[in-house]
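Quick one, tokens below:
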């Protein structure tokens, strides 16, 4: 039996490819902005914005500032989800990118404590919150743009393109921060850390040009042509789909926490507690991000073949098993063994992460999908993602610098994630539990 591809299929495939590329570029820019803040919080913000604290307390204060962005993310998810479900995905994503770019540039020119006193950390928190507000609407909209524009059998693959934005942004952020860190310590503390923030203006322009050329997502346009938008998407979501929201929050836990656990907490732990050079650790994280970027497309193909849920549970289990070996290897302080430890953990966890976006995109109906995926994911960001480096550092301090408590915390996070994946698959039945297979 032969099959033929009609004009509608060809149009959908072409539109899907453009949407995936645009979603990837824009999301990479957003995550670049977000990651440079996390890196700067780990190695630069303490003496600049909290010079009156001791080293450990300044680091905790920096991570608390880091969390401020996560507090604003659910608000951004609700606001931009409302706009995206009522007015469309494309224009909403242009707005999120602009807001993120302005906030990041603002951090780059913000005076330190020695210049404007307590106003410096206050303004830092406000600009970080603005970053979080923008990201709250960015991720869900990018996922829907990539998954709703192409053929349904490519949903997991479309979501993977958005997930590629995370390691790509991480690679960009680490490269630029690594170059800045080559400066003498005094110059880096005085002005060198600002360079990555200022360079984000160039990346934002590139992302805007890419997104402005896009069409509206196919599934949203089809629904808009036949039905009026829901008046209040968040009310509709919580009234009829709250169980899916709760399950999606837990299903997203490791996907959000893992990135900041490695790129933020591990960076601080290795440099402050193990004496690993700042430049060495940034290089290792760069290699690790490249590894994630290369692996995720391959992982998605495996998930399409074996089933999304089965694949996600398998990779989560592997991540839990590797938690203690990761800390043992990192604890040696040997760069090669550190890379082996975080690399193995990343391969396992990134397999689940690559599939997560497509998995969540299938969990909510089109009318409230932007609100649903954004609110659930960003609520998880606030409760779990933003607190991950803060809690990990707290457990490390309580353990007198030993990693055992941190490892237990990480394994519990993985267990909560696996429970969320299984529950969401059961609630959505075919939509999320069955992975589309591409022959």
């Amino acid at each position: 039996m032969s099959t033929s591809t009609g004009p509608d299929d060809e149009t959908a495939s072409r539109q899907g490819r453009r949407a995936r590329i645009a979603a990837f570029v824009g999301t990479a820019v957003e995550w670049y902005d977000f990651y440079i803040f996390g890196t700067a919080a780990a190695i630069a913000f303490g003496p600049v914005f909290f010079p009156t604290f001791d080293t450990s307390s300044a680091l905790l204060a920096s991570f608390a500032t880091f969390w401020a962005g996560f507090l604003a993310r659910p608000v951004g998810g609700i606001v931009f989800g409302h706009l995206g479900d009522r007015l469309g995905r494309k224009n909403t994503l242009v707005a999120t990118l602009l807001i993120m770019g302005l906030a990041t540039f603002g951090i780059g020119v913000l005076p330190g404590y020695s210049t404007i006193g307590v106003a410096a950390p206050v303004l830092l928190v406000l600009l970080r919150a603005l970053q979080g507000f923008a990201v709250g609407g960015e991720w869900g909209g990018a996922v829907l743009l990539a998954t709703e524009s192409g053929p349904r059998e490519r949903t997991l693959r479309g979501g993977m393109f958005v997930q590629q934005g995370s390691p790509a942004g991480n690679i960009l952020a680490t490269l630029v921060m690594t170059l800045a860190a080559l400066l003498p310590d005094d110059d880096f503390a005085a002005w060198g850390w600002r360079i990555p923030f200022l360079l984000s203006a160039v990346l934002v322009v590139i992302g805007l040009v890419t997104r402005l050329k896009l069409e509206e997502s196919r599934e949203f346009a089809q629904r808009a042509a036949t039905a009026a938008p829901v008046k209040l998407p968040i009310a509709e979501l919580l009234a009829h789909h709250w169980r899916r929201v709760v399950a999606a929050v837990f299903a997203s836990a490791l996907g959000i926490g893992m990135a900041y656990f490695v790129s933020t907490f591990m960076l601080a732990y290795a440099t402050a507690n193990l004496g690993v050079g700042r430049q060495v650790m940034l290089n290792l994280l760069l290699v690790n991000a490249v590894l994630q970027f290369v692996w995720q497309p391959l992982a998605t193909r495996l998930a399409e073949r074996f089933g999304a849920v089965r694949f996600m549970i398998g990779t989560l289990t592997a991540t839990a098993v590797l938690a203690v070996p990761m800390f043992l290897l990192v604890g040696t302080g040997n760069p090669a063994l550190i890379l082996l430890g975080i690399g193995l953990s990343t391969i396992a966890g990134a397999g689940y992460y690559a599939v997560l976006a497509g998995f969540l995109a299938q969990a909510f109906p089109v009318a409230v999908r932007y609100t649903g995926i954004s609110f659930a994911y960003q609520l998880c960001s606030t409760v779990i993602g933003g607190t991950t480096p803060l809690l990990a550092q707290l457990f490390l301090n309580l353990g007198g610098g030993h990693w055992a408590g941190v490892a237990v915390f990480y394994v519990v996070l993985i267990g909560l994630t696996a429970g969320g994946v299984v529950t969401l698959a059961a609630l959505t039945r075919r939509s999320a539990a069955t992975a589309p297979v591409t022959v």
